[in-house]
Structure to design on (170 residues):
């Protein structure tokens, strides 16, 4: 919600309050204040709007997810991995309606760097679907094979099989 500098300053002020409470003998309150400081530090590394957008996507509410992501005005000021997930989520939301923009978002998310291999596989699978819709068979096959290599837990097996069957029809 606030930028990183304000969160860091707030965490330092809370740390000073915690140290004061420990020195004055209020150990219980000092521990509670330390837990609050931990939450503030966690919010530096996990943007709450991206977490909220993931929640709305899990509930299949694309409009609320889109409105939550639209509140992020400067994604380039996010931490690098959070910026990648910002573009990844935008790509997932737009893949239902605007394919050209979703392709741009997926490519940008992959170039910045998604953390998990499963997320990379989903992005490449969506890019393969877009390539198939444009009748680019070679590009689609390379993206499908890359997605299959990245899917170590076989979570996307069914989608990969369906994409390969559709690829044979082209």
């Amino acid at each position: 919600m606030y930028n990183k500098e304000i969160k860091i300053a707030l965490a330092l002020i809370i740390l000073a309050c915690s140290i004061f409470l420990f020195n004055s003998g209020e150990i219980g309150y000092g521990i509670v204040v330390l837990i609050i400081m931990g939450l503030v530090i966690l919010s530096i590394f996990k943007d709450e709007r991206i977490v909220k957008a993931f929640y709305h996507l899990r509930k299949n509410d694309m409009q609320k997810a889109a409105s939550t992501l639209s509140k992020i005005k400067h994604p380039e000021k996010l931490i690098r991995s959070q910026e990648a997930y910002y573009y990844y989520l935008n790509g997932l939301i737009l893949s239902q309606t605007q394919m050209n923009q979703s392709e741009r978002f997926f490519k940008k998310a992959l170039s910045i760097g998604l953390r998990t291999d499963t997320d990379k596989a989903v992005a490449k699978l969506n890019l393969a679907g877009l390539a198939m819709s444009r009748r680019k068979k070679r590009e689609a096959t390379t993206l499908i094979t890359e997605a299959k290599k990245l899917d170590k837990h076989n979570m996307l097996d069914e989608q990969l099989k369906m994409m390969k069957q559709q690829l044979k029809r082209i």
About this structure: The longest helix spans residues 4-23. The chain has two domains: 1-45, 47-169.
